[in-house]
Amino acid sequence: MKLARFSKKMKLFSLGAATLLAAGVFAGCGSDQSASTSSGKTYKVGIVQLVEHNALDAANKGFVDGLKERGFEEGKNITFDKQNAQADQSNLQNIAQRFVSGKMDLICAIATPAAQTVANATKDIPIVGTAITDYVGAKLAASNDKPGANVTGTSDMNPIKEQIDLLLKIKPDAKTIGVIYCSSEVNSEVQVKAMQEYAESKGLAVKVATISTVNDIQQAAQSLVGSVDAFYEPTDNVIASAMPTLVAITDAAKLPIICGEPNMVKAGGLATYGIDYYKLGVQTGHMAADILEGKSKPADMSIERAKDLKITVNKADAARLGITIPEDVLKDADLVD
């Protein structure tokens, strides 16, 4: 009788253990499935920004927010290693090597020199770029339609014709345009060449001064004052990082600056028809999400152009220069006081 009771208890114990084991198996399956779709992996993403200025800062923030929109959120399933090279090539190289040795799942490179450096450091880690004008010209992609390697991203190529047309609306008596840019920035060379061709087709003369660092801006600007009627400034990172230096000279000479992008207007330039760099960053973040999700590879992802353009006018600078902005320009413009 005792043996029978013991046998019965053992059967109940075995049944309970089997039930618990089965429940554990199913719970484990459910847990694995949940992990594979949400928290199964924490991705490591390196962000390298060439230099600190408003446009690149906005693109950086937009990139992180774009990934978050797609479910990649810091503290949950992604960690960011954010680095700023402060426009120093040796810093760029050290950051690139850090990202490679850290085995990042993806790298975001903000501005052309940053992308060129990380592309030289790795052919395996996916790279998405933003605030880059010409991927092909910078030797980052074989073509815009099919980059062919590990680099893709968004282009900030300006609507240069529309910007020169805007200059002529605001300053219809302009005959000669001055432009200053950093000679080591391929993106600036591309923009200035395109601007020069279009400006000359409109009967305008163009005078160019090149710089190497922010320390050269004052001398370059003063060399053009007196021989130009207005300035055009592309999305040059050196100029963008030191707009107040340039504006101090051009405002004193009553010369307007038509800029490559809105943040340069906010920093003291007169006007632009340009890119929203925050939205460009968001667009780049969505491209990165496609890569992390395994939907696409950089080699097959077309370079994307900016989707949002707008007129921005600095009313305070217009007042300082004594320039009246035409109503047809103001009606659709974002205004900076």
Q: Please, could you describe this protein's structure?
A:
This protein has about 325 residues and is α/β, with parallel strands linked by helices. The chain folds into 2 domains: about 45-155 and about 275-310, Response regulator (Rossmann fold), CATH 3.40.50; about 160-275 and about 310-335, Response regulator (Rossmann fold, 3-Layer(aba) Sandwich), CATH 3.40.50.2300. The chain has 13 helices and 13 strands. The strands form 3 sheets. The protein has a 6-stranded parallel beta sheet, with helices on both faces. Helix 3 (about 90-100) crosses helix 4 (about 110-120). Residues about 1-40 have low confidence and may be disordered.
Number of strand elements = 13
Number of domains: 2
Helix and strand pattern: HEHEHEHEEHEHEHEHHEHEHEEHHE
Distance between the termini: 97 Å
The neighbouring-strand order within the major sheet is 2-1-3-4-5-11
Q: How many distinct helices?
A: 13
Shape: elongated
Gyration radius, in Å: 27 Å
The CATH topology name of the largest domain reads Rossmann fold
Helix content: 40-55%
Fraction of residues in β-strands = 15-25%
Stretches where pLDDT is under 50 for at least 5 consecutive residues are 1-39
By secondary-structure content and strand pairing, the structural class works out as: alpha/beta
CATH classification, class level of the largest domain = Alpha Beta
Major sheet: size, sense and barrel closure? 6 strands, parallel
Q: What's the architecture of the largest domain in CATH terms?
A: 3-Layer(aba) Sandwich
Mean pLDDT: 90
**The named CATH superfamily of the largest domain:** Response regulator
